[in-house]
Amino acid sequence: MRRLVKALAGALGVGLLMGAAGPGGAAAGSGPPGGGPAVRSVLDWRPCPRDPAAECGSLRLPVDWARPSGAGFDLAVARRKAADPARRIGVLLVNPGGPGDSGVDFAVRRAPSYFSPDILARFDIVGFDPRGIGDSAPIRCSQGLLDRRPPAYPRDQAEFERLVAFNRALRKDCRRHSGPVFDHADTLSVVQDMDALRQALGERTITYFGHSYGTLIGQQYAERYGERLRAMTLTANVDHSLGAREFMVSSAAGAEDSFHQFVRWCARTDSCALHGRDVTAVWDRLLKRADRGEVSDPRSPDHALTATMITAKAFRAFYGPDRAGLATELARLDAQPPPPGPLEPPRPSPPPDPAFHAVFCQDWRIRAEDHREYARLTAAEVRAAPHMRGAPRVHEAASGCMGWPEEVNNPQRPLRITKAPRILMLHSRHDPAAHYTVAAHVHRQTRGTTVLLPYEGAGHSVYGRSDCTRGAVDDYLTDLRLPSIGSCAAVTPSARGISRTE
């Protein structure tokens, strides 16, 4: 267990060759830390196939920044130019999270409805697919092998060994299909790619907006290249200083808190399908029935629905949050009559994005030597979230790292930012994926650099929650004006789309 809870400290070099790039987009030298040969690339812009109003391109970069003359890959990039060139401030580089979400897709398809008109008018919105993701040398694995993955909750040493053997076989398979980028999919490598992109765009400084796992990219960029930032906003933050146990427990606490918020919402909301009932009792009874194989899958009534599937469904609903939809679904499952006979085994869940573990397991040292150690970690999760039985998505992520090499490219360590401008952080009080204490801990590590603005409501996304959250971010990004308020009140959308206090 000692290795599971150890948060490793490390130091990052801050040297990278800087050079000038002209407006045409020729990259300046983007060399490795401490000097060395520079990498020169050109962004070859062209209209994006999905939306010709946006531009798509690629940037040739080294797979291993310690060997810039070695193998390379093409970083996929998209740009949506500022709608009002006369008022243009510069580049707003965006990462929407994951790991595994596409920044190119965000810039091309989602940005116009996500950001306010003022942000769209004054910034070039630039998204990129981090290495191993989307169109940037995507991680590839054999689908047949992915479909045979064992459960993430091994019951004994034999099942744990099967999980380890599968993870090792999958890692070998993915490395064979993906090439050298697989071993360099960590966030520190992405940070160097991001700075090379800054130079290729011809920008002395950039403005950055990172959400969820994109906050880790932002944090580590600010730590290493803070002087190259104009401004940075981070929403739904990740704390990379936590040891494995603390990370798993804090994630479980966030899921459990969201469950209790759902229960309270249902008690005060007449339209909740479970209003007037003991929602916690309904939930616990439903999970016990699922444990006995007595709940059928509405998509395939002959197949059982497991308790893990139900908690994962609830966890996804808390992201919105879609409490009404979750209540309706739970009421429907609770009303099922006992099955006439044994149900078929559960339908397999879709396999995770192959890139997810390639990134996650190189950013986090989460390993267990045997089932006993793994079971202790799982038990700690369940103690923190007895109703949600841990954090489903995080547990799945951690289970995929069992059997990976002990050495990690980017292990957990305290965050230390010394040269960046003031950074605006936003975080929901009731975020299912990351408990609010996670953001508070990141803020404590960087108190001289970060300003934390809580959103008092629920859900994982923060920016578009209310006039308060959107206005605070917009004022900061455009005018560098930090919020003077202590927090943003919780709101729910009315029928006409106008926010009101919850």
From TrEMBL:
<keyword id="KW-0378">Hydrolase</keyword>
<feature type="domain" description="Peptidase S33 tripeptidyl aminopeptidase-like C-terminal">
    <location>
        <begin position="393"/>
        <end position="486"/>
    </location>
</feature>
<feature type="signal peptide">
    <location>
        <begin position="1"/>
        <end position="26"/>
    </location>
</feature>
<feature type="domain" description="AB hydrolase-1">
    <location>
        <begin position="91"/>
        <end position="287"/>
    </location>
</feature>
<keyword id="KW-0732">Signal</keyword>
<protein>
    <submittedName>
        <fullName>Alpha/beta hydrolase</fullName>
    </submittedName>
</protein>
<dbReference type="InterPro" id="IPR013595">
    <property type="entry name" value="Pept_S33_TAP-like_C"/>
</dbReference>
<dbReference type="GO" id="GO:0016787">
    <property type="term" value="F:hydrolase activity"/>
</dbReference>
<dbReference type="Pfam" id="PF08386">
    <property type="entry name" value="Abhydrolase_4"/>
</dbReference>
<comment type="similarity">
    <text>Belongs to the peptidase S33 family.</text>
</comment>
<dbReference type="InterPro" id="IPR029058">
    <property type="entry name" value="AB_hydrolase_fold"/>
</dbReference>
<dbReference type="InterPro" id="IPR051601">
    <property type="entry name" value="Serine_prot/Carboxylest_S33"/>
</dbReference>
<dbReference type="InterPro" id="IPR000073">
    <property type="entry name" value="AB_hydrolase_1"/>
</dbReference>
<dbReference type="Pfam" id="PF00561">
    <property type="entry name" value="Abhydrolase_1"/>
</dbReference>
<feature type="region of interest" description="Disordered">
    <location>
        <begin position="333"/>
        <end position="353"/>
    </location>
</feature>
<feature type="compositionally biased region" description="Pro residues">
    <location>
        <begin position="336"/>
        <end position="353"/>
    </location>
</feature>
